Amino acid sequence: MEKTKHNFYNLTLSELESVVAEYGHKAFRARQLFQWIYAHKVTDLDKMTNLSKDFKQDIPNIFNFEMPDLLTEKVSTDGTRKYLFSVGPGLSFETVMIPAGDRNTLCVSSEVGCNMACKFCFTAKQKLKKRLTASEIVGQFIKVQNMLPKDIQLTNIVFMGMGEPLDNPEGVFSSIKILTSELGVNLSRKKITVSTSGLVDKIPLVTESGARLAVSLNGADNQTRDRVMPINKKWNIEALLQACLDYTNATKDKVTFEYVLLKDVTDRPEDAKKLIQLARKIPCKINIIPFNEHPNSGFERPSESSIDRFQKVLMNNNIHVLRRKTMGRDIYAACGQLNSVYKNNESTQTRAN
Ligand code: SAH
Fold first, then answer.
1. Which residue intervals of the chain bear CATH 3.20.20.70?
2. pLDDT in tens, 116-141
3. Contact 217/235 with Cβ under 8 angstroms?
4. Does the annotation mark 284 as catalytic?
5. Ligand 1 pocket check: which of 216, 301, 342 to mutate, most ligand atoms within 8 Å of Cβ?
6. pTM recorded for the entire structure
7. CATH superfamily of domain region 69-348
8. Which residues line the pocket of ligand 1, CB cutoff 6 A?
9. Rounded distance from Cα 336 to ligand 1 centre (Å)
10. Backbone φ, ψ for residue 162 (5° rounding)
11. In CATH, what class is 6-64?
C-alpha cells in the first residue's frame, strides 16, 4: 500500500531528517532540500543541483508541497495588505501585512474561527472550525513573501490574526521552529510575537520557544475581565500575572499587554488607575487598542479625547504605553475585524488567484 505523503511545510528540520532517513536517504539530503526551499526559495527540483539523482526522483513519492490557496489580496491606501486564504470548503482565514518604516510585520492566523468567546471580538462569532497546521501557518509567510514586491522583506511575525495560538500549540510552535531555523528563513525568535487571550497553562511554551509574549489583558480587574473575556473565569488575573512574571523572569524580556479600549467598560478613570497598579508589578509595555467597531457587537469605541486621556494618565505615571495605530481600515484589515464573512464595499484593489 502506498504510504501517505508528508506535507513538506509541516516538518521541522529534524523531523525532515527522520522522514528522509525512513526512506533510506542520508540525513544531509534533508538539510539540502530544506535550504533550497527556505533559504534559496527554489522549488523546482531540476534546479537543486547538489541533490543525488535517486533522492530527487524519490521526493515526489515522499512529500507533497501543499500550502493554503490564496483567494484574494487587497491593498490599502496606507500600504497594509490583506490576504484571504482557504484550506477547504468554508475554511477561509486572513493574513495581514503591516508595513511600518523598515519593519514589515505579518499578522498570521492560527485557527479558523475561535472558541475563546471574547465578547468584543469579531472572530469569536465564528466558533472554532480548524486549528491550522504548521504548513498552513508557514504557508501564509512563504506565499505572502513570494507575492510581495522584491524590495519588501517580511521582518516580523505576530500571531494576532484569527484564532487563539495557544489553543493550537502544535501548529504554532512547529511553524516557529521551521521559520527560525538557521538553515532556512532564519527569522530571529525575538521577531516573533505570540499573543494569547490568557491560556495560562500554555504560556511556558512561549518561554521555551524563545518567541515574545503578548497577553490580551482587556480589563484590569477580575470583574471587568470576566465580563469581556470568559477565559478569565478559568484563569483569573492573578494566575495570568504569575504566568507573565515567570515569563519575564526566565527571558528577561518584557511582556506586552494589549488593552482594548471599550467605551464605559474598560476606559474609565478607575480602569486606568488599576491598570497602572498592575503594570507596576511586572516588566511590561502596554499597547492600547481603541475598539474597532463591528455591527451588533454591543460595544462602542471611546471618543478620541477619552482615548488620549487614558493614554496620558498612563504616560504620566511612567508606564511604557503605545497606542496601536489603526491600519488598513479601508480594507477591513484592522485588529479584530478579520473575518472573511464580514465584507462590505469592495472599492479596493482585489487580486484573485
Ligand atoms: N487570540 C489571541 C490573538 C488574536 S486577537 C489574543 O487574544 O491575543 C489579537 C488582538 O486583537 C487581541 O489583543 C484582541 O484583544 C484584539 N481585538 C479583538 N477584537 C478587537 C476589536 N474589535 N477591536 C480592537 N481590538 C480587538
1. 69-348
2. 999 999 999 989 999 999 999 999 99
3. no
4. no
5. 216
6. 0.95
7. Aldolase class I (3.20.20.70)
8. 120-122, 160, 164, 195-197, 216, 218, 258, 260, 289, 291-292, 335-336
9. 5
10. -75, 145
11. mainly alpha
